[in-house]
Structure formats: C-alpha cells, structure tokens
Amino acid sequence: MEQRLANTWRMTVNEKKFIESALLSGLRVDGRNVYDYRKLSINFGKEDGSAEVHLGQTRVMGFVTSQLVQPYRDRPNEGSLSIFTEFSPMADPSFEPGRPGEFAVELGRVIDRGLRESRAVDTESLCILAGKLVWAIRIDIHILDNGGNLVDAANVAALAALLTFRRPECSLGGENGQEVIVHPPEAREPLPLIIHHLPIAVTFAFFSDESTLVVDPTHQEEAVMAGRMTATLNTNGDICAIQKAGGEGVPQSVIMHCLRIAATKAADITVKIRDTVEAYNTERALRKIKRHSAPVALDVSGTGPNVRKNQVKSQDQRKVSGSVGSQVDKLKPSNERNDSDQSNDIEGKMVTKSFEQGGTNSKDGKPRSFIGGPSS
Amino acid sequence: MEIDRADGRSPNQLRPLSCSRGVLNRAHGSASWAQGNTQVLAAVYGPKAGTKKNEDPEKASVEVIWKPKTGQIGKQEKEFEMVLKRTLQSICILTIHPNTTTSVIVQVVHDDGALLPCAINASCAALVDAGIPLKHLAVAICCCLAESGLVMLDPTKLEEEKMKAFVYMVLPNSILSVLPEESSSVKGEQMDHGLITSVTHGVMSVDDYLHCLERGRAATSKMSDFLRRNLQPRLSSDSSMAG
User: Fold this and answer.
1) pTM higher than 0.90, yes or no?
2) Which of A234, A156, A152, A162 minimizes the C-alpha distance to A198?
3) Which of A5-14, A203-212, B117-126, B193-202 has the least mean pLDDT?
4) Measured in Å, how far apart are chain B's first and last C-alpha atoms?
C-alpha cells in the first residue's frame, strides 16, 4: 500500500488556489481562453487503421483490426464493433497495470455509446454470409500520456483510425456460393468502412464557483474541478450522448449553454479530422500508383490530351522513374484540383479512368478493381 | 552465395535507426526507438518506494510492463517482459537505491521484425532519459540464419518467419575509457566482448551461433556510436521535468 501512496501525485494547496482564483477572472494557467481547445494534431501510422492524436500534452493511439466471426443470434446480418481501452501505466503514475479502473471503463463506455449506439459505423455492410460470417471490428485505444481530457482525445483517435481503416475484400464462391474467399490486399484493394457521421466528444469542467466552466481541461484543472460533463454530438445537430456522472450540480441554463458551445467545437474538430484523413488518403493513393509502375500502353496516352487540359503546375519534387512519371504528375494535379472543386465530375471520371487502365496494365497482368482516392 | 533481401539491403546492413528522447510529458523518462518499420515506445517511472513481495528489498528492483499493439497479454508478452527485466537488471546499478521499484513500460507501435531488440534499445534510452544510474549502456541486435547458412542482420518480419533460426543478443556498449587499457579487461578478456543476453529461436549449430555472435558484435559498434551520439546532453533550451 505504501507503493500506491508513493504513486499518486498530489496537487499542492497553493496550485489549487491559484488555478481557482485565476479562473474567477477568466484566466487559465496555460493562457487559453475559457472555451478554447488545445492544439489538436492527428498522425497516421504505417498501416491502415492506426492513428495517433496529440491534444496539447495528451497523447492517445488508436488501432483498428478486423476479424471474421459468427454473428450474434439476435442480429444475424450485422457485424459488430467493440472498443477496448488500455490505460497504459506510462500515461500517469497512478494508472495501475491489470484490471481497468472505473475511469477507464467509463471512458470506454462513453466512446462506445457515441460510436456504436448512435450507429455511426454501418454494421450491416459488415455482413458477408447472413447468420454465418460477419466482420467484427475491434478498436484498441492506448492512452500514452495523460495531459487531461482523455475522453475527447481518445474519441478523435478512434474516429481517425476508423476512417483510415481498410478491411479485406471478400467474395462468395464454392459450389453453392457458401464459401467465403478473403482476398489479400495485394490481389484486391481493401475497402474502407462505411461511416455515416462523426460523433465528437466535447468535455466541460465545472468548478465550485457556479458560473465557472472550462472546455478541454488539462490534468491540473481536472484535479481541481468539482464536476465534469461530456457531450458527444455530430455536425448534423444530433446529440449522440451526454455523460455527467455526479459531481457538482449545475443549473439547466448552464447545460444548454454548454451544448451550444459543444456544437461549434464539434464542427471545428470534424473539419480538422476530415482534412487530415483526406490528406492521408490522397497520399496513400499516390503511394499505390508509384508501386505499380508499369509501362503505359498507347490507349492510356490517348486520354493524355484531355487530362493535360486540366493540368495545374505541379511543384512536387518527387522522383518517379519510367514512363509512369508523366502519368503520376498528371494525376497528382488533378487530385489537388478535385479536392478543392467537388462539383467538377469530369475530372473525377478522367482520373478514375486512367487509374483503371493503369491497373489493368500492371506487371502481374491480373485485373484489379482499383478505387481511386479522390472520387470517393 | 548472395540472397536478395526484399528491401535491397546487404546481409550485414542494418535498417535505418531513429531515436527520440523525452517524448512523453508525465513519464520521468521516455524514448521512442525505430528500426526501419519496427517502432517501440518506452517510458520509465522511478524510483518509486517499496518493492514487490518476491523481490529482494536490499536492492532496487526493475518492473517491466509490456503492452502489445492489440489483443490480450499472452505468454509471449510475459516472456518478453521477463527477458527485458533480467537484461535491465544487469545494467542498472541496483545497490544505489535499495527498496525501490523502477517501472519500465514498453508499448509496441509497429512490429516488423526484431521487436525485442528494438524494445531493449528503447528501454535503455528511456532509462538514460529518466536519469536512472546505469553501469553501462546496452545495444541489442537480431541476427538470423537462413537455410543456406547465410547469416543476416536485423531481419524484417517476413524474413524472420522464413529463416531457419534467429538469435536476439544484447551486448554492452563499447566503452570509451580514459583509463589505460588493462583496467577494461575482466579476467584477461575484453569487457566489450561480453554478452548480456541471448535468446534463440529455431535450430542452429554451435559454429553458426558463434558466427552470429561475431557478426552481431561487429554491427553493434555502429549502433553504440549512434546511441552515444543520441544520448548526448541536449541544449539548455529544453524545459524542465518539474510537475
């Protein structure tokens, strides 16, 4: 027991009083405004479905994996989504290894309610053979550094990992169409998950003075706060979940005020997530083109003049060898144009056509269904 | 005979190394070590008061927690924890802080072969970042043996699975000594020729094993240089660890 006592970090009375009195004048210790979020940055790992989120000093990693399983009896044509949260002892000296504590369980449940119960991830598309085989998606969230506000960071990590995850494509075969063949990623391009909306969690901390509340508390503010509330909502204006477990009682007007603030914050974070995922997808598509550098046949260069018409000067310094170089350069500017100009369908079709032709001309000669990045 | 490695390396070539220290804010010491695509994050907390029941209270003890990327903690994770713990116990000076526990937490970010050596290197760098007193540093390397008898260093995951056998070895960092030559040798043998840990998988003959050891030793001098350069004290522009 002596060891546990040595682990807990106690806040001094001076620090506590300092934070509280600064908040009375609307000042926060790190210089933010009361309703400001810390800097959010999302990085992706080398595999599909791995994301690392930095929210100020808080650092969370999310991994998504999939497995073929038998479905639940009462839901034979739906896949399943399960979330596992790991409070790694490296995040905080008070996190013990082994059984998850109550805070870890609460965090897992809040993210679960936001993602699964609001039907953000389409589970019916995960069904392959009704009643026999479905995809089970597993999200592992590792908390690496506790700088405060773990719920929001973990939620963003889970969403970013889900958006960049690709599951293998499978088809039905065999005598009576009952055998499932799972195609490896080299043979057939893996498919992304269908995600209807992005539920974003926004956490508020209440303090003993009734009118004081802050958004995105740091761990020092969390040690001082009297109560907290997490609101999960999406940009469609739906509230997916609200979690206020005990703590200081707050008047209704304050709750409504918080929900309004949460709506604006959710919009900002959604834009940020979508932008980073889009950049990652574009870069991933480009990586795929460079790998299959095949000799370009005459009919592809036939579409050349049309593509060249839409060409924008490319400032990219990447070296690509062979005749595919020109193809890549043409495709990249059309990618950039497409991202900014969504209504221009002609460019989208051009890009998809050259992708497919590039696909059939690949060295191994196998026909591949290649999903071009920007057209999705 | 020459075997073509998938990424175009020669049999004696290591993957690109990268190491960053002080990546986490709450941990007392942290380091991220990457060898090619294999990446491991290690954090150190300590020394904390008290030791566990089975540990000797006359000495400091090292506790290792291994966190895999996904899934439950199984036997392999426990084995890695045990090997890592014994290795780190032999490089830490255990008599300085008796009756304390130093926790080392290892998180696997990506596994592309040579996972345990990568973790040992990361833990060593994290211990230095935390300021835990060490006797000397350690560098770890993986060496594998192909069917044809060719010895290759630092395999990727695909190569590891195809090989007949492989060995992880941990060697002490080559000593830069200001003292004259004689004091660095133990019983007539050079100190840097010692072997701290060796874990083998698969079947290999004694000659092959000794051959792997020689190759590994030659390669670790480069890794030692890299490690030493990386662990140089940083400039004073860094913030302190208070709080």
Assistant:
1) no
2) A234
3) A5-14
4) 57
Residues 224..243 of B with a Cβ closer than 8 Å to A: which?
Answer: none
**What DSSP character marks residue B192?**
G
Query: Among partner residues B48, B67, B109, which is closest to A7 by beta-carbon distance?
Result: B48
Residue appearing with tokens 């929900």? A259
Q: Is A45 on the interface with B (CB under 8 A)?
A: yes
> Cis ω on the peptide bond leading into residue B47 (within 30° of 0)?
yes
Q: Are A108 and A84 in contact (CB under 8 A)?
A: yes
Mean pLDDT estimate for chain A: 78
- pLDDT of residue A140 exceeding 90: yes
- Each residue of B127-141: pLDDT tens digit? 999 999 998 888 999
Q: Give DSSP secondary structure letters for A144-178.
A: EE--S-HHHHHHHHHHHHHHH-EEPPEEEESTTS-
A59 Cβ under 8 Å from any chain B Cβ: yes
Closest residue in B to A56 (Cα–Cα)? B25
Of A45, A65, A90, the CB nearest to B107: A90
Distance from CA of A88 to the nearest CA of B (A): 8
Element (H, E) at B197: strand B197-202
Q: Which residues of B touch A149 (CB under 8 A)?
A: none
A139 pLDDT exceeds 90? Answer: yes
- Best probe of the B interface among A4, A39, A144, by most B CBs < 10 A, is A144
Q: For chains A and B, count residue pairs whose Cβ atoms are closer than 8 Å.
A: 68
Percentage with pLDDT > 70 across chain B: 86
- Local confidence band at B219 (pLDDT 50, 70, 90 cut-offs): confident
